[in-house]
Design goal:
123 residues; four-stranded antiparallel sheet; mainly beta; 50% strand
């Protein structure tokens, strides 16, 4: 009942920046939190960043703290991931996700998923 559409991925050089967007539609009032995940070649999908839909609480994994910023625009039903100082290790398919419950945000238990957008960091 919730649709998520990511955009903004692409190819960038090390040290560069990208801004990912995720537009939500459908039963958006059922969402309590939004998150960004990524899956690199040969690795499992991992949580990257999350944000509560109703307050300003944000969460990040250690490897992206200080470089990535998650934000939201409730009026546009959109979540963003500003990615700065990108490294080759950030190369992955990035997925937007939505969570219905009010439990932990830093978890794999999300209910809605986007199609993914490729981010490649290479010189």
């Amino acid at each position: 009942q919730v649709q998520l559409v990511e955009s903004g991925g692409g190819l960038v050089q090390p040290g560069g920046s990208l801004r990912l967007s995720c537009a939500a539609s459908g039963s958006i009032f059922s969402i309590n939190a939004m998150g960004w995940f990524r899956q690199a070649p040969g690795k499992e999908r991992e949580f990257v960043a999350g944000i509560s839909w109703r307050d300003i609480h944000t969460y990040y994994i250690d490897s992206v703290k200080g470089r990535f910023i998650i934000s939201r625009d409730n009026a546009k039903s959109t979540v963003y991931l500003q990615m700065n100082s990108l490294e080759p290790e950030d190369t992955a398919v990035y997925y937007c996700a939505g969570k219905r419950s009010g439990g932990l945000i830093m978890t794999r238990d999300y209910d809605y998923w986007g199609q993914g957008t490729q981010v490649t960091v290479s010189s």
